[in-house]
Amino acid sequence: MSLNVAPVQADLYRLVKTLVVTATGLDPSLVIQGQPNRAAMPPAAPGFVMMQATVTKRLRTNIDRWDLTAPANSIDTEQGTQIRVQLDLYGESAGDWGVILCTLLRSEYACTILAGADPANPTCVPLYSADPFNAPLDDSEAQYESRWTLEAILQYNPVTTVPAQFADTLTVTLINVDETYPP
After folding, report:
1. Whole-number Å distance between alpha carbons of 36 and 14
2. How far apart are CA 183 and CA 176, in angstroms?
3. d(C-alpha 78, C-alpha 159), whole Å
4. How far is residue 146 from each of residues 96, 99, 139, measured CA to CA in Å?
5. pLDDT tens digit sequence for 22-81
6. Exposed site from 69, 83, 134, 156, fewest CB < 10 Å?
């Protein structure tokens, strides 16, 4: 049995992208996962957003669970994890997008979007957001590009499924202790 983990970071990127597209009104193709190599940056107008996970941190010890109604062949081990996602916002509206995203990342609105398909069992939740800051960039043509950066701090609980052995039958026999193990 190969080991599996869910959710994977690609799931987090998909949900953060949904939040960014909703907040900025950008076409989804203009919200990209960094750090692309040998790829030109999208045009500065209307702008674009690059998102990159930068740091993960364990929040608690593992929680082990197994389903007694399923075939007894695996245990799910959950790790509470904090993940820091850097959002680089480019274009004329980058500063405004930074304010919008910083505000939303401390709201129920972001909780709903980042929960994913099952709000009762959210994929991730926002913990907080760092304040956006101006981080101008000189591009390859030595031109100033407007860039604002903020960090979204999220929590998700990846579950790793590992093989396990369980006893599902038991044979009981009686022995006379005094005869088998004399005093």
Report:
1. 17
2. 12
3. 4
4. 12, 15, 10
5. 999 999 999 999 877 777 778 778 899 999 999 999 999 999 988 776 666 788 999 999
6. 69
Query: Measured between alpha carbons, how far is 132 from 24 in angstroms, rounded to an integer?
Result: 15
Q: Which residues pair with 46 in a beta bridge?
A: none
Please enumerate in sequence order all residues whose Cβ is within 8 A of that of 5, keeping only pairs 6 or more positions apart, or say none. 158, 159, 160, 161
Which residues, 6 or more positions from 128, have their beta carbon under 8 angstroms from its beta carbon? Answer: 105, 106, 153
**Gap between the Cα atoms of 37 and 77, Å rounded:** 35
pTM of the model: 0.82
Question: What are the boundaries of each domain within the chain?
Answer: 4-180
